[in-house]
Predict the structure.
Amino acid sequence: MEEYEVLIIGAGPIGMACAIEAKKAGLKYVIVEKGALVNSLYNYPVFMTFFSTSQKLEIGEVPFVSISPKPNRNEAVEYYRRVAEKFDLQINLFEKVEEVIKISATQFEVKTSKKRYKTRNVIISTGFYDVPLLMNIPGENLPKVAHYYKDPHLYAFQNVVVIGANNSAIDAALETYRKGANVTLVIRGAEIGSYVKYWVRPDIENRIKEGEIKVYFNAEVTAIAADSVTIKTQEGMFILENDFVIAMTGYKPDFGMLKKLGVQLEGESSAVPVYNPETMETSLPGLYLAGVVCGGLDTHKWFIENSRVHAEQIFKHIAVKDK
């Protein structure tokens, strides 16, 4: 069984930032990641542009140089790969953590799909992109329904319904429209989401105004069939011919591991994990949280740019605690 002073779950930007701090502190560490390096970013839409500037996405004091002030997904994936190379980070990819057990006051045992580890400290930095928020409606499991959007070419010249009001949905609607799709937006609220990127908002508003993208506000999809969707609106029910549904209904962290470990989640509608905001340690000594997972279901609270500091906070506490 391999033994470490720190085991980090998740090889996203914040998990990598934690590994860099561990290396600076001279601690024996490992990152365990169930997918590819920066797996969530890898699965973002191919042409996605970040809201943040490249400087705010930097980790380890490594400059992030991008063509435009706001980098795209491909530039970010390459940047973080180069950071991993620069620091020669120890990362075990495509290895899923299956169980974390507190075996003593100062030791955890971590079981993965490939091996077992012992470690004094565990940092959970798993993000939120792995578990889509389902609509739980008939037909949601049909092959035509996607909860992840990658590339608009698939939808060229097709009847596409996009569900959602924020960045993922609006980007999907605009990109598929520009590949020749007949796009209908279905939005639960009365307007486009408040988080939509400011340079994108005029574009979608103009496409709707010109009738190039149809929209149903205060509406929801209630059923999906092989060749149609049923939409409930304030004006009544509508059935639309349909080839594909892109359900950008949001995502949530996987709280299963936290619950098994006994980490308290506050509020049914928010599910915010309880932790010390100064040290990032949970009520379980030696178990820390970092990044988006700290916000529970409010996935708009923590981003790369404002959670990079979690790594420093954690290792400042570990330095004192593990003396």
